[in-house]
Amino acid sequence: MDLKSMYPGLPDPPPAGHPMLAPGTYAGQTILITGGGTGLGKAMAVEFARLGGNIVIASRNPQHHQAGLAALEAVGGKAIAVPLDVRHPDQVARAFDEAEKAFGGVDVLINNAAGNFPVPAADLSPNGWRAVTGIVLDGTFFCSREFALRRVAAGKPGAILNILVAYATGAAPGHAHSAAAKAGVLSLTNTLAVEWAPDGIRVNALSPGIFPHQDHSPEMRKQRPQGYEAEWNRVPGLRTGRTHELGWAATYLCSPYAAYVTGMDFMIDGAERHRRALRQAEFVPIRQQVHKRDPGA
Ligand code: NAP
Fold this sequence. Notes:
Layout: H1 3-6, E1 30-34, H2 39-50, E2 54-59, H3 62-74, E3 78-83, H4 89-103, E4 108-111, H5 126-154, E5 158-163, H6 176-196, E6 201-208, H7 218-222, H8 243-253, E7 265-268, H9 286-291
Parallel strand pairs: 1-2, 1-4, 2-3, 4-5, 5-6, 6-7
Helix pairs in contact: 2-8, 4-5, 5-6
The structure holds NADP nicotinamide-adenine-dinucleotide phosphate.
NADP nicotinamide-adenine-dinucleotide phosphate binds next to helix 2.
């Protein structure tokens, strides 16, 4: 069915670089983004930088650091990159120390780092489970706690944004590790929003739908042989997301314009999460989907 010729779908957003919030909204503020050197983390970092924020990219791979810094330099952003494996609380503390040395305190924390690979739950090794839950759930908690302790000690407010996925609230065949970890982060979002609101710290989540970018891992790409862009026909809005749209949502949620927004899971997915068919498509067990054991799958 040629859906594009039958329906307009959701309109495209204004182009990247178009102003959304007031210029200088983040002037003098520091934003630490875990995994900020690739994909969606990099795209969000760029939007914070356009609004005058100082950016701290925090992740493990120096090549990712260079890529993130180059993207930020291209929009005239001020940025540093610090080594960090979010699974280690001592490294988290060091990353915040380095951010403070460069720019003063961190005002906004984006917990974006993640690991993921599709696998039937029965085939998932304990190491694979620990790697993904360690990055997503432990890492989010360690970074959030470090951030909050420092904000409270400094007597300053702050904002945390946790990057989730649509399946954090439902079943996710092939992603048991990631879904369990993201569901845990959703729970943390709600709990920490309540615990830390009296200290002026807001905690929100942002759940992207399908957002193609250049840095998807080979494991994730294998499941989409036609490429991420070709996934537009799985979305009721008949298009995939643009990474700068996600950046706009992130900059809004962490800004003073959202000062009363906390404990919120903001979905940006063209209604993909709510999609249901009149009759569900034929059921295909996850082993057949991931390992392609059934030629018809
Ligand atoms: P990505 O390009 O693979 O980014 C993952 C990032 O996490 C990398 O920059 C990586 O940096 C960092 N990272 C991984 N392990 C880390 C660790 N132990 N310590 C510190 N950093 C670590 O993925 P993405 O597509 O941009 O996804 C970004 C976020 O959006 C994730 O939370 C993901 O679940 C969510 N999301 C994405 C989509 C989508 O369509 N793309 C949809 C829904 C949700 P290093 O390798 O340098 O450490």
